[in-house]
Amino acid sequence: MQTIDDIRHDKLFFSRFKHSVLLLYQLGGPGPSIVIELSNVRLLSFIKVFDNISQCENYIQTNIDKIFTLIIYSENLQAWLTNKQHLPHNICEIIIFCSTTDNQTYTENWTNRFIQVKEIIMHNEVDRVLLLCGTKYLKKLSTCCQDDQGLLNLLNEDYRKLCLALSNCFLTEANRNDHIISSSVESS
Amino acid sequence: MNLSFHLTPLASEMLHTLMSLTGDTISSIDNIVSTSAFTKYNKTLIIFTTDEFCSMMNEKPKGLLQLYVLETETNKMDSGTRFISSDDLIFQLADDLSYYYQWEAKSDATLGYTYSAQEKEKCASNIHVILTNIHKQFSASQPPLYISPTLIYLTSSSDNMMIKNMKELFDNIVTKSLLFDDQHSCYQYLQNNEKSSSIFLIVDYDYDDTVINRLKNFVCVKKVYQCKKSMMKSDTSVEQYGEWCFDLTHDLIIHYNKLATQYEKLKDYNNAKDMFLKAHQLSQLLMKF
Q1: Cα distance between residue B289 and residue A135, in whole Å
Q2: Nearest CA to CA, how far is A1 from chain B (Å)?
Q3: Distance between CA atoms of B259 and A125, rounded to whole angstroms?
Q4: Which pLDDT score is estimated for B77?
Q5: What's the sign of the alpha-carbon dihedral A82, A85, A91, A96?
Q6: B127 three-state secondary structure
């Protein structure tokens, strides 16, 4: 089984771009520690992972000329805002994942004020939402480097793979539901 | 200040809980007509109040650190200090409380006041836990958030090949779609369906910003996409359509994913499966853009 820990950031390739995608998941808070299963870690090399809030914060603040998409555990965002009054200005987009549905509903209301927050999802959606986030990110990068055909080819190749993985992910989910339907028919 | 009558039941409950949690840190005072009332507070102040009271405040009270305002007009809203929703305002109070309690805990700890530091830190980290519990009581009766999307095309000329092609592509996936060729009949439709739909609107390139902005103002309109005039007029392949097609497909995938997870939660597995299949089809479409 592969998890967030297995994501290897391709620094050499992605550090040339102004926009970066970061994922923060620090365990050890009061809430449950959930293992997040990922189906395609190899395609997620655009993500830089942090398991420590202050390291992540430090990285964002020292790279002031960059902009960031941040994918963060709800509890980590709460801890972050307890220690710092504001989020850094160069975070342009936030996706929050939650451990329980109660927490998801709460987080939706709590973060309603923050325009950077784009999506609030459950932990079992992280796999497909990371792929979806990747398609958008790579699409954006490829519009910024239209003159470099070599770079463009690499990005387009990865983009295609992400779309494929994403469509497989949704098919798996559909089949899983189909399974539940047929097994409930059998038992009744 | 003067907020009690402007709070939703949820905001009101949150405020009372925060007050009982933090002792005399919060004072909730109503029916204040003059700012002289502040002089008795020989403390640093963070004021949460109404826009009415705010406009009455001629001079800044002594010790004022921050002012948060509950606005009545949407256009005055900003994401930092002026809010339309009283829930948002009270959440800001909660965030400020947890921040300042944590801050004081740190400075107490450096001064050697270990007990006080621990108490304050406990309070700071408890705030979200306690508010989550209040939310549970209020959110039980909330209706489902997501409904099936409708695609609306607003064209200016009926022979726009781009829109025709797009409609063909999406009609296989998004079951409900409509086409209008003038903005007024489109407005009319949106007005009548304000509450019951979730609309993604594709607008032809020759409509101007006044039309676009008016469309965006309908609550049921999720997003408006404006076609760019294609550089290659003869080219009808979808690959040439550019960014807005990607955005639309991407947004629809997010929407169907939300719908599917919502159906799963309601144990409606048939619909969940269908929604996942739509997201699956759209992901294959995404590859083309």
Answers
A1: 11
A2: 23
A3: 12
A4: 74
A5: positive
A6: helix
The fraction of chain B above a pLDDT of 90, given in percent, is: 58
A58-99 residue pLDDT tens: 999 999 999 999 999 999 999 999 999 999 999 999 999 999
Amino acid at A97: F
For chain A, state the CA radius of gyration. Answer: 18
Q: Is B112 left (phi over 0), alpha (psi -120 to 50) or beta?
A: left
User: Rounded to whole angstroms, how far apart are CA atoms A51 and A24?
Assistant: 6
Q: pLDDT value at position A10?
A: 96
Domain total in chain A: 1
* DSSP 8-state symbol, B240: G
Q: Is A187 inside a domain boundary?
A: no
Residue A158 lies in a domain: yes
| Residue B266 touches chain A, beta carbons under 8 Å | no
- Neighbouring residues of B129: CB distance < 8 A, sequence distance ≥ 6: A30
Residue A35 lies in a domain: yes
What domains lie within chain B, and their CATH numbers? 4-139 (no CATH), 149-286 (3.40.50)
Q: What is the pLDDT of residue B73?
A: 82
Helix (H) or strand (E) holding B178: strand B176-180
Both tokens of B243, joined, read 């960014």
Chain B CB contacts of A106 below 8 Å? 128, 131-132, 135, 139
For residue A188, tell me if it sits in a domain. Answer: no
Residue found under tokens 């083309």: B288
CB contact under 8 A, A171 and B128: no
Given B79, B95, B132, which is nearest A81 (Cβ)? B95
Domain residues for the domain of A85 are 2-182
